[in-house]
Design goal:
Strand content: under 5%
Shape: elongated
Largest sheet: none
Radius of gyration: 14 Å
Number of helices: 3
Number of strands: 0
Helix content: over 70%
Order of helices and strands: HHH
Structural class: mainly alpha
């Protein structure tokens, strides 16, 4: 039950991040957008591990990695511009 709830939270976080991006409330280069995607992917990885859904694990580990790289690049750019 708890793992299914975690999966639903992940799916909702993905939907919210894309909705906010589409409405112009978030920008692609913003860390907040990527943090929502990262949180959603982590939730879905937890869900997929529990249910042994290997394809879903792969997709969301890759999605998490992309989000982490984007957050890193966003932060690196932010601090470089502060100098």
């Amino acid at each position: 039950m708890i793992f299914e709830l975690i999966g639903w939270i992940g799916a909702i976080l993905f939907i919210i991040s894309y909705f906010l991006l589409s409405k112009g409330k978030l920008k692609q280069g913003e860390a907040r957008y990527h943090l929502l995607n990262l949180a959603g992917a982590i939730c879905l990885v937890i869900n997929a591990i529990h249910f042994r859904d290997k394809a879903n694990i792969l997709v969301n580990v890759v999605w998490s990695t992309i989000a982490i790289m984007a957050i890193y690049n966003t932060r690196k750019s932010f601090f470089r511009n502060k100098s």
